Amino acid sequence: MSKKALMVWGGWEGHEPKQCVDIFAPILEKAGFAVDIHTTLDIYTDAAQMRSYDLISQVYTMSQISKEQEKGLLETIKAGTGFAGWHGGMADAFRNNTEYQFMVGGQWVAHPGNIIDYEVNIINHEDPITAGLSDFKMHSEQYYMHVDPNNEVLATTTFGGQYAPWIEGTVMPVVWKRRWGQGKIFYSSLGHVASDFNVPEAREITRRGLIWASR
After folding, report:
1. CA–CA distance from 183 to each of 78, 92, 124, 152, 177 (Å)?
2. Which segments of the chain have a pLDDT < 50?
3. Tally of structural domains, the chain
4. Contact predicate 86/188, CB 8 Å
């Protein structure tokens, strides 16, 4: 019996949510998932349907979530459904919802310089999400985030001082995993737009993270 995944996309179109879902929905299907795709958050209040999913991947930026929707999502994850995503679609989804941010393990606050060249450094070479991968370059937004010290960090980036001198040398998590109750959480700050996943390492980390987070 195949696993079931829910992908929910929406919010700010500049993050190309549909295009990103169009990349990873077939990847999940190839990995044996039956994938449902929704374009609103209404599904989050359907407790029976939500509990049927092994994985929820959200690509929903700079938006709002109702108390009922947030409660439904968080309780589903706490009961064992995995939650995984990337960039603003997961860590800049709902700026007013601190309980949601607590679950994610971080929240975007800045990307100094906007689209720039930077390096991602793999710091855990044993974890299945990053094993066998080397440090790599990105030309995209370098996310500065508020992060939970409880995260299990797998990759980081180091900020220069050319755009904000006071943060020069700051080492910032890029990829992490964690738990929320019985549910597994995966996050990567990579993926500002769909073309970012043309970088093989960025795509592979996300692919592995989605599969890892599944129940």
Report:
1. 5, 20, 21, 14, 11
2. none
3. 1
4. yes
Using DSSP's 3-state secondary structure scheme, residue 28 falls into helix
Pairing of strands 82-86, 55-61: parallel
- In single-letter form, the type of residue at position 89 comes to G
pLDDT tens-digit readout, 198-209: 999 999 999 999
| Long-range contacts of the stretch 116-122 (C-beta < 8 A, 24+) | 116/140, 116/141, 116/142, 116/163, 118/142, 118/157, 119/157, 119/158, 120/155, 120/156, 120/157, 120/174, 120/175, 120/190, 120/201, 120/202, 121/155, 121/156, 121/157, 121/158, 122/154, 122/155
Q: Give CA angle at 206 (172, 35), nearest 5°.
A: 140
CA distance 198 to 167: 29
What residues does 177 pair with on adjacent strands?
A: 152, 186
Q: Which residues are paired to 145 by β-bridges?
A: 108
What pLDDT does residue 133 have?
Answer: 98
CA distance 205 to 5: 18
Q: What is the pLDDT of residue 1?
A: 62
Expressed as residue numbers, the domain containing 13 is 3-213
pLDDT of residue 171: 98
Contact 73, 66 (CB under 8 A): no
CATH of the domain at 86: 3.40.50.880
The pair of three-digit structure tokens given for residue 142, joined into one six-digit string: 């370098």
Phi/psi of residue 84, nearest 5 degrees: -150, 145
Q: Could you tell me if 122 and 134 are in contact, meaning their C-beta atoms sit under 8 angstroms apart?
A: yes
What distance, in Å, lies between the first and last C-alpha atoms of the chain? 14
